[in-house]
Design brief:
The structure holds two protein chains of two kinds. Chain A is of the alpha+beta class. Chain A is built from eleven helices and nine strands. In chain A, the strands form three sheets. Chain A has a five-stranded antiparallel sheet. Chain A has a two-stranded antiparallel ribbon with strand order 6-9. Helices cover 75% and strands 0% of the residues of chain B. By secondary structure, chain B is mostly helical. The chains are: A alpha+beta, B mainly alpha.
């Protein structure tokens, strides 16, 4: 989710020595390893979004005793000259560190960056696996994983919601303001976004905003919410779930928001008979979540959050096409996504009737 | 008056070229973006085919929901007026005018029809 032009990426050639310097110093500062030198190899850009870049590389650690160790790593950084990030890198690093400490399935965070790249960055473990939903749905290699996906997605989500905000000092995450409930806060956030940028009227969104305000959840739980818990951000191996990625929409809110978001129709990637991410049905997902210590899945509330999720994705589609409409980006993808808004409108009209 | 091929025929030629002669020779993100581009051309073809009928139908439905007005003669003026009338409808919804009763049903039917018209152009596979 971003609002500006495609940034100029770093080149791997200029980035590699800077990273090697940083890592040499960072590793020397940690007492347990006697590392003489770190070199960076196989550095390449994985994804270059407008609001962040993800690079893959291996760090080769030459130790004083002559041994050599290779660490598979990921660099997350803001693009040079890019826009204000959705979430500060240092906060994203702290959220991942807290989650890792509480045994959530996340890559191990290694080092928060300094000013040497000119942009905020951090370095974490690289976990290998598959995130592309269509492959996960069809590839025989994931047949066994498909048997356990829904259950694991519920169980592992409960773990996220058990991370203590207080213990890990995550109070600076986005959170409800001025006495608003988490639901009121989220509605307001996306309603403001919609009103400031929609170029055409969207009666389906108006009906949905109104419906949501009339059906606010009664309970007031506040937990760490992943904020983008869906297919595409979950990494699987042939045995099952390996890692939960992309924490930059994390916030403090209603835990059931994550359960509703997972059921948004767009994350079924065509597998429409299976509402939970195109891999499962709602009841087993909720049951696994509850049995793993998650919050009670109140049916009306989770329905509320599924409607909210579809509306939120619709507003994000509008947001993503803005740079194209403003002439700041020439991306055909950003151009095309504007027309995807109607998919969420259709789903909203459908869900409001249930 | 232009010569053949028509705009529809030209769009078909370009789409087929992308699908059959470009996409298979690309990989990774370039292949993905090329598919997105070919799909965008299909959207344009469907819009050219359905636009006139859809705009007229939307106008008729808004006549029933708001008040009867003469349909503007030019396509640009019609689109402008449709946008204004839809703004008016949104204003009614925000004020609670479509919260309940027969009017809500009527509004929902109209909005569903309008969203369906958008999807028939942008992604017919989404409808169910």
């Amino acid at each position: 989710m971003s609002t500006t032009t495609t940034p100029t990426p770093f080149s791997a050639d200029s980035l590699a020595p800077l990273l090697a310097d940083f890592l040499t110093q960072a590793v020397r500062n940690s007492p347990q390893d006697q590392v003489r030198k770190v070199s960076v190899i196989a550095l390449h850009l994985l994804t270059g979004g407008a609001s962040r870049q993800t690079w893959s590389f291996d760090a080769v650690l030459e130790k004083t005793d002559g041994q050599v160790e290779t660490l598979p790593l990921i660099l997350r950084c803001d693009p040079p000259g890019g826009p204000q990030a959705v979430m500060e890198r240092s906060l994203e690093f702290r959220v991942i560190a807290a989650a890792h400490q509480e045994k959530v399935l996340v890559p191990k965070p290694y080092f928060l960056g300094d000013d040497r790249l000119g942009v905020p960055f951090f370095i974490m473990e690289r976990i290998e696996g598959e995130t592309i939903p269509r492959r996960l749905f069809r590839d025989p290699a994931y047949a066994e994983a498909r048997e356990v996906m829904t259950q694991q997605m519920g169980t592992r989500l409960a773990r996220i919601h058990s991370v203590s905000i207080q213990k890990h000092q995550l109070e600076d995450l986005p959170r409800p303001q001025h006495g608003r409930s988490p639901a009121e806060e989220e509605i307001l956030r996306y309603e403001e976004m919609y009103q400031t940028m929609a170029r055409e009227p969207h009666p389906a969104f108006e009906l949905a905003f109104r419906w949501l305000r009339q059906h606010l959840p009664a309970h007031q739980e506040r937990t760490l919410v992943h904020g983008d818990y869906r297919m595409g951000n979950l990494m699987f191996g042939p045995e099952g779930l390996r890692s939960i990625l992309d924490w930059e929409l994390a916030h403090i809110g209603d835990p059931l928001e994550d359960l509703g978001w997972m059921c948004v129709r767009s994350w079924r990637f065509g597998n429409d008979t299976l509402p939970v991410g195109g891999v499962g049905t709602r009841e087993p997902f909720w049951q696994a979540y509850e049995e793993a210590g998650g919050y009670p899945v109140e049916r009306a509330s989770v329905h509320f959050w599924e409607i909210f999720g579809n509306l939120r994705w619709g507003v994000i589609c509008l947001n993503m096409t803005q740079p194209f409409l403003d002439g700041l980006s020439t991306s055909v993808e950003l151009a095309a996504i504007g027309r995807r808004t109607s998919e969420t409108e259709w789903e909203l009209l459908h869900l409001m009737e249930d | 008056m232009q010569d053949r091929p028509s705009r529809e025929e030209l769009l078909q030629a370009v789409t087929r070229f992308l699908d059959e002669e470009v996409v298979p020779h690309l990989d990774g993100s370039r292949q993905f973006y090329c598919r997105v581009a070919a799909n965008a051309l299909r959207t344009v073809m469907r819009e050219l085919d359905q636009e006139e009928e859809q705009l007229a139908a939307e106008w008729e439905r808004l006549n029933a929901l708001l008040h009867v007005e003469q349909q503007p003669p030019s396509r640009a003026a019609l689109k402008q007026a449709l946008r204004q009338r839809t703004e008016d409808l949104c204003e009614r919804i925000r004020r609670g005018g479509a919260d309940a009763g027969a009017y809500r049903t009527q509004v929902l039917d109209h909005v569903r029809a309008s969203v369906k018209e958008k999807l028939l152009v942008s992604n017919p596979g989404w409808l169910r």
